[in-house]
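Posting for a labmate who doesn't have an account.
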Amino acid sequence: MDRLRTARNVAIVALIAAAVEFLPGGGRAVEAFAAALWVVFAAGLAFFAYRLYRERHVDLYGLGDRHRALLYGAIAIGFVTAAAQPRMWHTAFGEFAWFALIGLAAYTLLAVYRYSRTY
């Protein structure tokens, strides 16, 4: 019974792959489906960040203005640097700057975390 189910699933995946490969416009349909999945994934991340903020907003305000600004700045630098990674890695200086910015963001996040755990 289990082998038949596995064989059926493999056949379904092979059929979908053949349709994408050989039917006209199959590649565009896959790209549209992948884009829709990325939108759903991004919406899930945004919802997770919203819930995390709502649950921990007292802790965030307890950090004080300076450390809260450092936290938000490190998160922003991390996201922008990660998004710019393909373009930054075209040159040696860009690759160095990418690692430097990611390291700076990680160090800042660690410093804010250590501050949040002190009395």
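Reply:
Got it, the structure tokens are right above this. The two ends are 61 Å apart (CA to CA).
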